[in-house]
Predict the 3D structure of the following.
Amino acid sequence: MLVFPASKVETPMTELQLRLKDGNTFKTVTVDREVFTIGRLPECDLSLPFAGVSRCHARLVNISEGVWTIEDLGSKNGTQVNDRLINYPQELQHGDILWLGDAKLVVQLKLPELPWEGKQEENNGQKTILRNVKQLQQQWIEVDPQEGNSSNRDVIIARLKDLVDIAKNLSGATSIEEIFFQVETVVFRYLNGIERLALLIDISGNGNLEVVNSAAKTLSQQQYLADDSDWISRTICQRVFKEKVAIQTADAQNDERFAGEQSILFKGIRSAMAVPLWDENKVVGVLYADARLFASHWVVEGKEELSFFSTLANLVASSVQRWMLAEKLKTEELIRHRLERYHSPAVVQQLIAVGSKLPDGRLPPQEKEISILFADIVGFTAISERFTPSQIAELLNNLFEEMLQEIFTYGGTLDKYIGDCIMAFFGAPEPQADHAERAVNAAKGMLSRLQTLNHNGFWQEPLQLRIAINSGKAVVGDVGSSQRVDYTALGATINLASRMEGICPPSECVIGEDTYRLLSQPDDFQEMGYYRFKGINRPVCVYRTHLSN
């Protein structure tokens, strides 16, 4: 049970609050006295019944206007500020994280408001600028017309030169890391007060912004960037992305529109800017920057810096789109290289068209109506005994290359090579209503092609094939581990086709009864009879060709 300090009427001071996580909720404690003790005892100004908290653990001291320190009071486990143990009083900064045992406190230091010079026409006087990006495209180049003509010309020339240099550096960037490095260098050089920067891109194209890179202005700030990117205001980024607007807020903590935004309130964001990566055709992402201090200089320079940030984002958008296109082409090439091992060029093109929609780049296993084909060399064991392994490898490579042409001609998919056997199927991944016809035509083409090869002296002796085809339901898709995946077909339909191959006469093709029923012209096949096969609990009617006659 947390014990919060009783309210007292004190002389007004800079407000310090401590944000404490208690279970699944956050509670805010206002430090309302100049010396404020924290510990496990109920007498402490803030009593923390957490493990590792000493009876009188630490104290906060207001040493001057706006300056607070924390001091450890000889606790057993010590006091940490941003994961570092302190041995002497340390000044607190807005956003510091305090650890007292298992208790985590976030410092929220409300700095004195600076006088508001000038009026913001946007947002009814609040310190927030909300502008359409089209209105900002030329504003950074233009300068105040009240300045002298010579000054105007010099400033315009200097800014144009900067834009040319920025564009040149971005155009030479070939990776997203290089692009972000150029952006980071420019932003931290030109924009005063910005502490953190992030590049978010809609990589998938479905409106889901992903943080591809982020950076902080100093190394000490860099180490505190959250790995999960919770420090980024998703509310601001999503609005910028969807509405194509640029947002700049000098004091988000007191902007009522961000009252429910936890990433702003809890992380202590005071000033932030976000602009869309937009080239007038498409928004591809958001460039986001923020700081934990009130950006008082934005009162005068806010519009100019927002205009520069938006102009930079326009340049970045083109670079990001080039990078995304290059990545897409690389992905398509990898997919094409992999799929061409299994599919005909026409099927490969269809799969690439939907490749970005595949989960993890895989074809998920699905039940399909297919025809499965097995073909192997008659007497291959005896042939292997008469020739060297190198000669056998050469034979298989050349024969498989020839047979695969027939399979691909009829839109088949290569499943795998099993020794001297070719396993292929028709009807997946793309549905084919005539999968049985395709499989039979491919088998006839393979037998005819081999006959021609034998006639032309393809091998040192004539070769023969046995081919078996069966049709029915099967599960087809990518199956395997994270290290290796094979696109394959599984099920009883495949098992029966494999068994049927053993009863096929040389240089012929046998088909199952389901395949026979699917053929529009089954006259080329004659019934062989009913057979029983291992693992099949019923007799199966088998049909065969008479091509050898």
